[in-house]
Amino acid sequence: MGRIRILSDQVANQIAAGEVVERPASVVKELLENSLDAGATRIRIEVEAGGRKLIRIVDNGHGMGKDDALLAFERHATSKLRTSDDLLSIATLGFRGEALPSIASVARLSLETRAAEDDSGTHIEIAGGNILTVEDAGLPIGTTIAIRDLFFNTPARRKFLKSESTELSHIAALVTHYALAHFNRHFELHSTTQALLVAPAVASAGDRLFQIFGRDTAALMIPTTAEMDFTRAGLPEPPPWKRELDYEAPDPGFLRISGFVSKPELQKLNRNSVYVFVNQRLIRDRLVLHALTEAYRNIIPPSSFPVVLLFLEMPPHEVDVNVHPAKTEVRFRQPAFVHDFIRDTVRTTLMQARPAASFASALNGAPYNDAHSSLLIDVSPLPGAPSDPVFDPRRAPEGFPQSDHDPSHEDSAPFFLAPIPVPESPGRLDFSAAATLAVGYEQEAAHAPEQVDYGKDRVIENPSLYSLSTLKPLGQIRDSFILAVNDEGLWIVDQHVAHERILFEKILRERNTEQIQRQRLLMPLLIDLMPDQMVAFARIAEELERQGFEAEPFGPRTLAVKSAPVGLEGRELEQMIEDLLSVEDRIGQTENADTRARRIAASMACHAAVKINMPLERSKIDWLLAELGKTEYPTSCPHGRPIALRYSHKEIEKAFQRT
To answer: Where do Basic and acidic residues bias regions lie (predicted)?
Structure first.
């Protein structure tokens, strides 16, 4: 007898279950997607013992006849595909026909279903893949599936399940986010002791966000919407000699983005609060996660992550969902186009909104530990996962380079052996009231809206930094923070990071236009380096030249700096060079040209900016606030620290018990 045998259907189903059914949340995901594909408008999920003992899903979808109900438990039986061409344009959440037989092979399953055209329904019971009962029954239109004793016949798999509360939190997060994606449907999630979620159908995604998470969380989210047609991607058509006589150019379709992104003050320690839906399918895609990280670069610290709820809509043929057993990963047909559009849309949304951080919220909780305002549960509901105005995309910047955090030395002692003075130039920092240095882009027109409408009687104040131009400075607090007022309330501005943001954008603008002003040192500055730092210098030497430096090796372990940008000199210049060359080798090797340019610009701005404990004259303060208002993003410095905090007029009135 030969060595190779064909596995029995039961064993094959259990192997498939190992890929599809990892935990109770995996079962809920598969069955919930089937209910949505069936057109259900009301879905009720009941869970006992974290899903180990019972998972019951009741929907009012179109249901099934008796023959279809029996056929649904055969491997690769599906109503959603007909030919192999259908795999190129999958428009449903489920399609492979493996979910039901795989689940039935590792649990005790009960199915009750009835189609609208049938007089009676069908009741089926299956245990461990074996059909026990098939009978007619009087049932309402729709489907009810009950899964009991999950992994009862595979005890090894059952041992790998976590505690009941952990498994329940995975299910709760999963149902919550499908409820957010399908706001026009009614969702309920019940455990043995309580109703975890009751979300009736609403008119918009904003209403659903407000409905589930409340006013406080909704106030920390910014709505975003964008649309672009795929013709801009520039994919070539078949050459004329390969076209049929009746060939017609296919409709490229549109890429649409909608959803909510968090203000910079709402941050997380991991990516578990980033949830993305592609054609209403919950996914975990590295390309999208990278695009969101790039969108927030130089806005929040590189060690923290935003909270994002994003919905992508595109033609089915533009995305392949058949690349992962649990359908949690996808492949885009035009990945670079999708990546750049997501990045530019989110970045431009933040730039246009210019959200102002609340002084009170900054005092109540650190940005890394925001449990009271967290949008999402910090567990991944994805089985197998690791840890309406339309905005005009033509106004988005062409690209947003990247940056990484580098150490700063804000209180370093000055270097007394300074080079000889050079004549004033446009590149030197000028604090005079008549300074005409152009920073940022002129904002003549629209200001960000002051309020966001999340539905009837749900208007939430959305303060922005467009009002920086109206600030009237009062003075300094310990020569470190600028105190200013306007009609909105009291503002406290960190003078160092404010100047750092001004210089950062100025350096990048002058670099791109090759207008950086440099000064030649009286004597070359010699800096002793370690061997790995010399290697790092060779990697960034070209970019340093573009940003105004003239430096070259002077021996095997010495660097000679002959020229530097205006505004950097002495000890600050030496420390900046050392900081740039001390970056981790892993970061230096993986960063691209834009990332490197922004990292160097951020370090230059940090070392050239005014320091704390430095008194400023009134004219200098006026200049600083005026130039800050002209920057593209005055919310945070290039390293992610907040620039200005607002103590609103309402908060002041409340503190004095006048409301």
So the answer is: 391-411
Q: Which phi-psi region, left, alpha or beta, contains residue 214 (left: φ > 0; alpha: ψ -120 to 50)?
A: left
- Count of domains observed in the chain: 3
Same domain, residue pair 222 and 160: no
Give CA separation, 225 vs 120, 342, 372, 393, in Å. 46, 10, 27, 10
Residue 75 lies in a domain: yes
Mean pLDDT, 10 residues at a time, over the chain (659 residues)?
72 66 89 90 94 94 90 75 58 68 90 93 92 92 94 84 89 89 93 89 88 81 89 71 76 87 84 85 87 88 86 87 73 89 91 73 50 40 40 37 40 41 40 35 39 51 71 89 88 90 90 84 85 84 88 86 85 85 68 82 88 90 89 84 84 80
| 566 within some domain | yes
Reference 307, options 278, 341, 350; nearest CA is 350
Tell whether 169 and 264 lie within a shared domain. Answer: no
Ordered DSSP codes for 343-394: HHHHHHHHHHH-BPEEHHHHHH--TT--GGG-SS-SS--STT----PPB-GG
171 lies in the same domain as 262: no
Residue 460 β-bridge partners? 452
Q: Using only C-alpha atoms, what is the Rg of the chain?
A: 30
Alpha-carbon gap, residue 428 to 237, rounded angstroms:
52
State the residue range of the domain holding 339.
202-231+252-354
Residues 330 and 206 in one domain: yes
Nearest to 479 by CA among 333, 617, 309: 617
